[in-house]
Design goal:
eleven-stranded antiparallel sheet; alpha+beta; 5 helices; globular; 279 residues
Length: 279
């Protein structure tokens, strides 16, 4: 990897993942980081000298830092340490990066489409006071306003009326994680306000949740305006299905609806689709 270029960065990350897979090291984050750093040259090498050493020692941390530094369009993020207390300001564009001048943003709401009207109609601008996760609502006046922000390979969903830094729609993984905090077939997450690209949730009073959170995971289907997510790790990719708890209207995201519902037979759940509705 040589230059400040978003496309080259994405290609480089894919090459590192492929090399690690071929070497049987796709679960060894230190090996992947060491291999990636050994490939740096010119601009990338100069950049690596100026970042904290821990960034270069773990592949998950390193690839997030690379995407922040090299992507042509970036959203505000927490500091490289991942601490949620005081997120760093969005960095200025690096030399050689030209931010796109034709980036379009569209403001609207996210409609809930489910098998039962009990699920609610929109993602609410109110979050659950205990877990900091989104609820559904039935009135448009109570719905969260959102703005679709095109990124390089996905979309960010900005929460228009939410205070910074927790003003991005994200998913916070809370249970069923595999080794290395990776998504597995029994993973559950909460839809919640996050900073970008990762943070802890806003306003949570729960203790012991230490799973990862991401906001740069959304895809927008132009055919039906559906918003979906793709959560990719070094060796797996999952689409987390939105799931509504009909008792308390909390919005979850799970990798296997049938298994999760069976774990909590006393609760009533329904699968949902998230549809962007322009204002």
């Amino acid at each position: 990897m040589v230059n400040y270029d978003g496309e080259e960065c994405s290609s480089f990350i894919r090459q590192v993942r492929r090399k690690a897979f071929e070497a049987g090291k796709s679960r060894d984050k230190e090996w992947m980081a060491d291999y990636a750093v050994s490939c740096f040259a010119e601009d990338a090498l100069k950049w690596s000298v100026g970042v904290p050493p821990n960034v270069l020692e773990d592949w998950d941390t390193l690839q997030r830092a690379l995407m922040e530094e090299y992507c042509k369009y970036r959203i505000p993020s927490v500091g490289l340490s991942g601490a949620a207390a005081t997120p760093a300001a969005a960095p200025a564009a690096s030399p050689g990066i030209t931010l796109p001048t034709n980036v379009s943003t569209v403001t609207g709401y996210i409609r809930i489409v489910a098998e039962t009207s009990e699920a609610g109609d929109y993602i609410s601008k109110t979050v659950d006071s205990r877990f900091g996760m989104f609820l559904t609502c039935t009135e448009l006046a109570l719905a969260a306003r959102v703005r679709l922000m095109p990124l390089m390979t996905c979309y960010g969903v900005q929460l228009v009326d939410f205070p910074e830094p927790y003003c991005w729609l994200g998913i916070f993984l809370v249970s069923g994680l595999e080794e290395g905090d990776r998504v597995g077939p029994e993973t559950r997450g909460n839809l919640c306000p996050t900073s970008a690209p990762s943070s802890h949730v806003m306003g949570t009073s729960s203790k012991g949740y230490v799973g990862p959170a991401r906001s740069n995971i959304w895809l927008f289907q132009t055919l039906d305006s559906c918003i979906t997510n793709v959560w990719s790790d070094s060796d797996s990719t999952y689409v987390l299905q939105p799931l509504i708890n009909l008792e308390n209207k909390r919005i979850l995201a799970v990798s296997n609806c049938r298994k999760y519902s069976a774990m909590w037979p006393g609760n009533k759940y329904t699968k949902a689709r998230l549809i962007f509705e322009p204002a």
